[in-house]
Structure formats: C-alpha cells, structure tokens
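Module 6 notes. Inverse folding takes a fixed backbone as the condition and produces residue identities as the prediction. Think of it as a translation problem where the source language is geometry and the target language is the twenty amino acids. Below is one complete input and output pair. Work through it position by position during the lab.
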C-alpha cells in the first residue's frame, strides 16, 4: 500500500503512539497508504457508499488531483475486517480534506465512524493542520453535524476563510449531491464514543433553539411565524391571527409550552434526532407551532428534498383551495423551528 519515500504524496503518521493508544483498547487499528490500503473490501465500501463515482473516480483511485492523497482505513485489529474508510488529502492553508468517508453498513451505529474521525483529527493535529473539510452526502450530513462540522454558512470565521480560499483556487472538492462542511481540528485526542446505551443517551445534553439552528444549518423563525416567497423574491410573513382565531383565545385553559423549554436531542443512530421538553408536558398544553416556508403544490413538487415538508389535513386543504389560497405545504428545511425534530420513531 504505501508509496515510495521519493513520492510527494502525504505520509500519514498512522503509527503515532497517541493514535494507537486511542484505538488499541477497542481492538481497532488504522492502516494508511495508497489506493490498495484496506484492499478490495475498502474499495467496495467507498464505492458503494458514494453511489455512482463518475465524478469522483479519481478520489477512489488516488489519481489526477488526488495523486497526493492517501487512504485511511479503520480495521478490526483481530479479524482485519474493514470497519470504515476515508480518502484524506492535505491542502494548502493547513486544511485536511476528506473527500470520501464511509462506514461499513453492517457496522454502522456502533461508533466506528466516530472512531475514524477521531483518528483523522489526531493525525491532522500531529501534522499541524487547523481545519477539517469534508464532502458530506445527504445520508452522512447528520453524522458530521454530530462531530461538530457545519456547512460554510454556519462555520466560524477561520473555517469560512479557509474554505473560500480553497474554493477560489479550485483546491477543494464538492462532488455531486454533497455539501462541503468544516470544523477546526480539535486540539486533543479524546476517546471516540462507541455505541450508546439508553442511559448514556439520556445524559447527552440537548440543543436549545439557537444552538439547534446553528448546528443543523437552518434559520429559526418560530418568533416570526410562517412566510411565503412573492414573485419578486421577498418574504411575505403571515398576518397576525385575529384574537378569535388564536387557540389560546378559544379556551382559557389552553396554553403553550414555553419555547425555551424545548430542545433537540440525539436519540441514537437508529432514531436520529428528536424533540423533548425539559419538564413534563400537561395534557392541556400545545407543544409547538409548525412554522416554515409555505409552498404551493407546484413549488412543493419542485423540491429536491421533501423530507421535512408537511401538508395540511385534507379538509383544511379543500377550504384553502375554495378560498383561492394556493399554499398547501410548509417546509422547515432551511427556515423553521424546533418542531422539525419531532420524530415518530
């Protein structure tokens, strides 16, 4: 696997004692090298996880713009099975780029992806690098958010500057259907978290509205309500409800849970993110309002990602159509509130 010393390629210090101390107690090992590192098993994993590699074959084969990159492969130290694999590239400006990263499907949810990330962060620190940049697929984005990475809009100033500099020089890779995300490289080697039991999950801190919006890359508009986009591109906010239409005006016993008492939390790799309250909710309380961008049927059909969008009940949709109201859906993906984390799993 490893190239000759005369090659200009990156030589990852995978034999670093701190990396070994991090992984060996968990019976894990790290193998680094060329396109043969991890063997056929690693190649199949990376290829399968990124679907069609028509636009990133060079990253898989470590050719062309990736001729100086290396593979980093996380192995079971006893069976030598490939648990997770990545392609790693050092870029100008103290950046560690990870264009390809995948965890074997049968080993997902057990902390091995986090273990490989921790090892890569440790390697970056050993090399004196400051910023980690990844190409996140739709499937892996939540994983990277949990590791502390953000899309460019929500990154810190240093990470934004590093990404902009690389983009301007064409030195950073964003493949089809991926999003560039970045974070500062942690200045320490923390043991990677393995699979959490329920007790551990309950102890994990939640994210209040502002932190959740920043972490998950959306704008919280709970205090403003829903809006639609006019023909000129401007946001048109909903009119305030008349007093007789407010739920709290119908029944004096109906109250809302204070928004500050709600928080998003990670419920584990199977269930993903959810919403909880920091106190018990009474059966007479409304939890949270559905807010976001209001869409017509035509606008809804044009969405590339319909994961978060919700429609009105049929009786309300019929009444809206009869009244000439075209808005039939609410999408909170980029503008919304904590309700977007409500999870029926």
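Target side of the pair, the amino acids:
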């Amino acid at each position: 696997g490893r190239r000759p010393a005369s090659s200009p390629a990156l030589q990852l210090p995978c034999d670093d004692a701190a990396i070994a101390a991090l992984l060996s107690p968990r019976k894990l090992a790290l193998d680094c090298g060329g396109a043969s590192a991890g063997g056929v098993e690693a190649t199949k994993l990376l290829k399968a996880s990124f679907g069609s590699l028509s636009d990133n074959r060079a990253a898989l084969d470590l050719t062309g713009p990736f001729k100086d990159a290396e593979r980093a492969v996380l192995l079971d130290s006893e069976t030598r099975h490939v648990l997770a694999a990545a392609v790693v590239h050092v870029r100008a400006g103290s950046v560690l780029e990870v264009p390809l990263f995948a965890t074997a499907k049968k080993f997902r949810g057990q902390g091995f992806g986090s273990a490989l990330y921790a090892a890569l962060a440790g390697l970056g620190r050993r090399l004196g690098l400051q910023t980690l940049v990844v190409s996140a697929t739709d499937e892996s984005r939540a994983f990277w958010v949990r590791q502390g990475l953000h899309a460019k809009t929500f990154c810190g100033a240093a990470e934004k500057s590093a990404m902009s500099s690389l983009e301007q020089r064409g030195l950073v890779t964003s493949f089809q259907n991926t999003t560039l995300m970045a974070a500062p490289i942690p200045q320490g080697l923390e043991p990677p978290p393995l699979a959490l039991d329920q007790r551990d999950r309950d102890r994990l801190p939640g994210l209040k509205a502002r932190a959740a919006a920043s972490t998950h890359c959306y704008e919280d508009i709970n205090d403003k309500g829903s809006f639609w986009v006019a023909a000129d591109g401007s946001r048109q906010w909903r009119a305030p409800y008349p007093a007789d239409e407010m739920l709290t005006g119908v029944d004096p016993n109906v109250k809302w849970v204070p928004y500050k008492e709600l928080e998003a939390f990670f419920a584990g790799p199977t269930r993903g993110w959810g919403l909880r309250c920091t106190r018990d909710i009474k059966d007479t309380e409304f939890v949270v309002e559905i807010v976001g961008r209001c869409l017509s049927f035509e606008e809804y059909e044009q969405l590339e990602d319909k994961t978060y969008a919700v429609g009105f009940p049929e009786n309300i949709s019929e009444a809206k159509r009869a009244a000439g109201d075209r808005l039939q859906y609410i999408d909170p993906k980029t503008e919304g509130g904590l309700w977007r984390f409500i999870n029926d799993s």
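Reference fact for the lab report: The longest helix spans residues 112-126.
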